[in-house]
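Field reference: sequence -> structure
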Amino acid sequence: MNEKNAYQPVMGVIWMLVTGLLFVAVTALVKFNGTRIPAAESAFLRYAMGLVFLIPMVGAMRKAHLTLRQHKLFWLRGIAHTGGVTLWFYAMARIPIADVTAMNYLSPIYVTLGAALFLGEKLALRRILAVVAALVGALIILRPGFREVGPGHLAMVFAAVFFATSYLVAKLMSDETNPAVVVTMLSVTVTVGLAPLALANWVTPTAGELAVLFAVAALATAGHFTMSMAFAAAPVTVTQPVSFLQLVWAVVLGAVVFNEGIDPWVVVGGLVIIGSIAFITMREAALKRKMRTPAVPATKF
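Structure field:
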């Protein structure tokens, strides 16, 4: 093994650790901003201000020459992602950070189901068992009948579905276009999709709230960059388990910064969901198949 191959997995782990911290910082800032600004408006401002980071990608967009079919698929993805980020912002401001983080892990499971239903991928027994386990994990977190399931938790259930739809379309488009085009089109379509929702119930933000949302945009962009660096440095089977530490960061952050009690059921349910994703990932790697389920950070807004 040469020196380069020896240090790449370590760099992949380091980059993914940084990615997890960046995305948890994003959730903390959204939580800090509170509920005064409606969820759709907060999401719109985050994406609108985030467009400044996409200026270097203008050249790639000019060379793309997208077809009508590709435009339709990009807009389909934009609509789905619009629903997902709106529900995510709504949930983040109303339920504990650990709950949001744990339930966000459902997205890769929905992607697995969607890939089988719409992309013709084989749904082997191991995948079925992993999906069932993940759904059990979600029930452990929600505990219907034992506690009130609020709108914030329901929002996360549907947000995961919307995000899964978004990334199924992204899987199709990533085989046809430049990754820079995929990222840029997502940001543009989501910004446009969120605009009417934001204007329908507009609340003028303060300078402080705008600053926080710009920081959200910057940190989210940085998170996607470090995630790509992690994937370039090491296989997904190395980096994805590290991404599960986000649940640990979320629990600690919620308890220390926002005085949110640590709910052991949320931790247990989150670990069950994480275990199911890890099982799918490791089995696919063992069989030398192409990884179908996106890494958890990829399902973030």
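Note: The chain has a mean pLDDT of 82.
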